[in-house]
Design goal:
The protein contains 30 helices and 13 strands. The chain is of the alpha+beta class.
């Protein structure tokens, strides 16, 4: 590829125009960029069942916005006095839509109003069993005793609405209270546990807990409230909610971004000082990096609407890759010494830089084929960043660095680079058959020991303090909603409710066996019309026809006129049946009401489980129920990871094949095979070493190997272009390897397993690529310089 002055000038002015437009775009977009750190946002959320997708979204929306606090101290009366101030401090923050310590009864009161007048068709489970057993007289005696021992001004209303307390029993089963829950005269909620009293304060966020703005505001508000409460002796605050995990995740991500970014920058600065000894080059080296990172952020913002912190962490590691183009330019310019000219320099550099860029960008963009939203962001971020850095180097560096440098590269670097590659090349060429057999056997044994891990719970290590606090919260409150649930579907509401009632019979058996602690669903709030008719029949036969209602009214001294009215009202003959349309609105206002919805002309209801202790038993029983789908969100995600891991293997093989065909256009098939051999062998060596180390692999390791292919191929291409003997190319490859290892090696220290495995795989893979890249060199005499336009200054000899 011949590069003339005219082309260089066109590149320069064309890039200046593009750079000016990009700077305007960066200035406009940066203040608008929002970030998120939900680890599950990395994974595909689609499911083959649209009902499951919608149910997952509704459940997550309900759970993630809740925040809970349990407050305790040595003096419980002081706690009660401090609670209003604690809640008020939180309420002053815009991040909370509401914070309270007393239950809001308006929603449940509205629901109860809808139940009024439907007493004969609404029976609690225990009362229905009594009536089915013919114990109507006993039920009437219990009601009479309760009325006589607790007389009050509401007697008339009680007799009109619920003379046998059957409706009250039905309402109580909707919201069963924990045994240790206490509500005082002011409505204050408290729990007794291990001889201590805890007051419950709970709130709802005004936005997503993954919003950085919400997190910053909430962190400050919670800290202020905790500082006020901390003045009490023996104080204890137990917190629960997704917010606290996102706060910890954000802090961890910010720390890792600082570690990776700062570590890479400091390491690169030290390299540049030792090798080039030029303050100007220190500044120029980071211009393409900064430009690439900023444009990567902007591209993610415009394409995805927000930037995930995982993409930002990888953006910090992009420093070690994007600077490679600058390193190749600087090294070649210093090696040319007085013979340097932009035209001859670009004539040598442009083909290799372009091929290296294409290979890296193709490797990054292949992430998008995997279908992971998070990795699609990484792909766009990195590809745009590398293209931008490449544009700065080829568009502006020849303009900025037209004059030869006055400082020559240290001769020790020339001797070290040529000496090392001469030594490693001889060792690679003189591998004996016995040694080759040993290497093959060791590699095969390592590959044989590889194990896969697709557990999403390994992708992020939870803060141990938060995990312990959550377990303590659940032990005190006594309620633990399982990650699994059951999804029931039907064409109409009546069929749906009947199926739920059949399922409830199964779940009650599981609860009696101790496999689950409890469950709740739409059928708790609304019996099917078939069940309502049966309830009405029981009411009429056991409480009306047997004279139990008449006897109760006579015993209470109700006058005949009123008694006749009540008999007519409660006989059940004119009672209408409750429908889902009647209750849809009040149920929707309940903060913890049943989850039901319509999706694609199908009705769905979610049965939430509590305290699942025997998953296999529950799953087996559920699978036998018609139209009931067992849903395990963790298992679903694990299956997705498994499917994508298997798909990435094919993607990796396809990438090697396509890049091999692409390189054959320039190097012929033998040259393409030699060029692609270093990353291919490095991939096998990395997998074998991970097998020997006992490190399980996941889709993240395999996608890291795609990057090993792209970055490793970059060095192999320069080896091929330089015949493997020009020390400037050897030195640039060495420096690029160090910067890449600095960037991605630091990722291997991440507390997030997905990032850690990604970084470790690249660290090993790039090291092997560095060792094996002499395989890509053309076979020629050592020391021969064959790059056009470069004559080594004799003073360097």
């Amino acid at each position: 590829m011949i590069v003339g002055k005219r082309l260089l000038q066109q590149l320069r002015w064309g890039f200046c125009v593009i750079a000016a437009l990009a700077i305007v775009l960066i200035g406009y977009s940066l203040p608008r960029i929002t970030f998120e750190n939900d680890i599950l946002a990395l994974f595909p959320q689609e499911h083959h069942n649209p009902g499951v997708t919608r149910a997952n979204a509704l459940i997550a929306e309900r759970v993630t916005s809740k925040v809970f606090f349990l407050l305790s101290a040595d003096d419980f009366s002081a706690v009660r006095q401090s609670v209003p101030q604690f809640a008020q401090t939180l309420n002053q923050c815009e991040c909370f839509s509401s914070v309270t310590f007393t239950p809001d009864g308006s929603a449940i009161a509205q629901l109860y109003q809808h139940y009024a007048g439907f007493t004969p068709v609404l029976l609690g489970a225990h009362q229905r069993q009594q009536l089915e057993a013919g114990q109507g007289a006993r039920l009437a005696q219990q009601a009479t005793r309760k009325i006589l021992t607790n007389p009050g001004g509401g007697l008339a209303h009680q007799l009109q609405q619920d003379p046998f307390f059957t409706l009250n029993a039905f309402l109580q089963q909707l919201r069963p209270a924990p045994a240790n829950l206490r509500i005082d005269e002011t409505g204050l909620l408290s729990f007794e546990h291990d001889s201590k009293h805890y007051v419950l304060v709970y709130g709802e966020l005004s936005g997503s807990p993954y919003s950085l703005v919400i997190q910053q505001q909430a962190r400050a508000a919670i800290a202020a409230a905790e500082d006020q409460f901390a003045t009490l002796s023996g104080h204890e605050i137990i917190k629960a909610g997704a917010l606290f995990y996102t706060l910890a995740g954000t802090a961890q991500a910010q720390q890792e971004i600082s570690t990776v970014g700062l570590g890479s920058i400091l390491g690169i600065l030290l390299l540049l000082i030792l090798v080039f000894r030029s303050p100007l080059l220190l500044l120029l080296a980071f211009v393409p990096v900064a430009f690439g990172v900023l444009l990567g952020l902007v591209a993610c913002y415009w394409i995805f609407g927000s930037v995930h912190f995982i993409a930002l962490v990888f953006g910090a590691s992009l420093v070690g890759v994007a600077i490679d183009y600058a390193l190749h330019f600087f090294t070649h310019r210093h090696a040319a010494a007085k013979q340097w000219s932009p035209t001859s320099g670009m004539q040598y550099l442009l083909p290799a830089l372009t091929l290296g860029l294409l290979s890296s960008v193709m490797a990054y963009l292949s992430f998008m084929l995997a279908g992971f939203p998070g990795f699609s962001q990484i792909a766009v971020f990195s590809a745009v960043g590398l293209i931008s850095a490449y544009g700065v180097v080829i568009g502006l560096y020849p303009w900025w660095l037209q004059k030869p440098t006055a400082r020559l590269l240290p001769q020790i670097l020339e001797r070290s680079a040529l000496g090392y590659y001469g030594w490693i090349s001889k060792r690679l060429q003189r591998v004996s058959p016995v040694m080759l057999l040993v290497i093959v056997l060791l590699t095969g044994a390592g590959l044989w020991q590889l194990q896969a891990s697709d557990d999403v719970r390994r992708m992020q290590v939870m803060d141990p303090q938060l995990s312990l606090m959550e377990k303590r919260f659940q032990a005190i409150v006594g309620q633990q909603t399982a990650l699994q649930y059951v999804l029931v579907s039907a064409q109409d509401s009546e069929t749906l409710l009947q199926r739920l009632e059949v399922l409830h019979a199964e779940l009650q058996q599981l609860q009696q066996a101790g496999d689950i602690n409890g469950f709740s669903s739409l059928a708790n709030y609304l019996p099917s019309q078939a069940r309502q008719r049966a309830n009405q029949q029981l009411w009429r036969e056991q409480l009306i026809n047997t004279g139990q209602l008449t006897g109760l009214l006579e015993q209470l001294g109700v006058v005949p006129e009123v008694r006749a009215q009540l008999m007519e009202r409660l006989s059940g003959s004119a009672t209408q049946f409750l429908s889902l349309d009647d209750l849809a609105t009040p149920l929707a206002t309940l903060p913890d009401g049943p989850v039901f919805f319509r999706e694609q002309q199908q009705l769905y209801a979610v049965v939430l489980l509590q305290g699942v202790s025997n998953v296999h038993s529950v799953q087996t029983r559920i699978q036998d129920s018609p139209s009931a789908l067992w849903v395990d969100a963790v298992a679903q995600t694990n299956q997705l990871l498994r499917d994508y891991r298997q798909g990435t293997i094919a993607l990796l093989a396809s990438a090697y094949l396509l890049l091999g065909l692409f390189l054959s256009l320039r190097y012929r098939w033998r040259g393409a095979l030699a060029t692609i051999a270093p990353p291919l062998l490095a991939t096998l060596g990395t997998l074998a070493l991970l097998g020997w180390l006992g490190q399980p692999i996941s889709v993240f390791n395999l996608m890291a190997l795609l990057l090993v292919l792209g970055i490793g191929l970059d060095g192999a291409i320069f080896m091929r272009e330089s015949d493997g003997h020009h020390f400037a190319a050897l030195l640039a490859i060495s420096l690029s390897t160090v910067t890449t290892i600095l960037a991605f090696g630091l990722l291997s220290l991440s507390a997030t397993a997905a990032i850690q495995s990604f970084g470790l795989t690249i660290l090993l893979g790039i090291f092997f690529c560095f060792v094996l890249c002499p395989l890509a060199a053309k076979k020629s005499q050592p020391g021969v310089e064959r790059q056009p336009g470069i004559e080594r200054d004799k003073s360097l000899s």
